[in-house]
Specification:
single chain; 269 residues; alpha/beta; Rossmann fold; 7-stranded mixed sheet; 7 strands; globular; disordered C terminus
């Protein structure tokens, strides 16, 4: 039986496609459209895709409550079992969901994540928190650009466009970012890793200045049988390397479908 935390928040959910279900778990300060907008139509070609935005207010969050909330939304939209595609903070939420609800979760794709944030990640998030608390959206935008993207990507922005990029970032900080950043600071799923018992692909990002790829490698090393893939570029992979990332995610599910079909095919021979 699925047990749900009484603190589980109500999420805003969008649904696309039909077929085996995939639940999306976005990053801190992100959102379903921002993190998965380009991926959703590709997955929805042959899957039911369920994407839930984390709360837009700053009510304190826990991994348990968010993990349970994703499960509640999946069930409410017709998915009794599902895989989870997760980014950044969402990877910790996905891992916790797989451990709390093993009867529901059938696979994981984890990108740009961590088992516990390292010192650099926590220091970055602390700067985010200070800027948000002070209402200094411009400084927050600068921190996001410096840590969220690779050096090559930032340096390739034409100098005359940089101020516009920062202004757009400052104007589009999602509600709930402070609460999500606070959760990143305390999140720790190291003890959960060996309890994950589903096929898992972990994707690290070689130029990630916010969440060093060593963190993703720690996830992969701790999850039994996990595959590890490292892509070039910075943390916000869906902006820097969307095609490579999309291909990696789609390849995982193609492999899962082939594995599921193999026993059935053998049984008919």
């Amino acid at each position: 039986m699925t047990k749900i935390s009484p603190e589980s928040p109500v999420l805003t959910t969008q649904v696309s496609g039909s077929g085996p279900a995939i639940v999306l778990a976005h990053g801190g300060g992100g959102g379903i459209d921002a993190n998965f907008g380009g991926l959703i139509p590709l997955l929805a070609a042959d899957h039911l895709v369920i994407g839930s935005d984390f709360p837009a207010d700053d009510t304190p969050l826990t991994l348990d409550s968010l993990a349970d909330a994703l499960v509640v939304e999946a069930i409410a939209h017709g998915a009794e079992t599902f895989s989870i595609v997760a980014f950044s903070l969402g990877t910790a939420v996905a891992i916790r969901a797989a451990v709390r609800h093993p009867e529901r979760v059938r696979g994981l794709v984890l990108t740009g994540g961590f088992a516990r944030p390292d010192n650099r990640a926590r220091l970055n998030i602390e700067l985010w928190q200070r800027a948000l608390a002070a209402g200094d959206r411009e400084s927050f935008a600068r921190y996001v650009l410096l840590a969220g993207f690779s050096a090559d990507f930032v340096n390739a922005i034409p100098e005359e466009e940089l101020s516009d990029v920062l202004a757009r970032t400052a104007a589009n900080i999602p509600g709930g970012t402070a609460a999500q950043a606070a959760l990143i600071e305390t999140a720790d799923v190291r003890a959960d890793l060996p309890r994950v018992a589903v096929p898992t692909l972990v994707i690290g990002l070689a130029g990630d200045l916010l969440c060093d790829p060593a963190n993703a490698r720690e996830q992969a090393a701790g999850i039994p049988g996990a595959e590890y893939l490292e892509l070039p570029g910075g943390h916000v992979v869906m902006v820097e390397r969307p095609e490579a990332w999309h291909a990696a995610v789609l390849d995982f599910f193609t492999g899962q479908q082939a594995s599921s079909a193999a026993p059935s095919a053998a049984a008919t021979r």
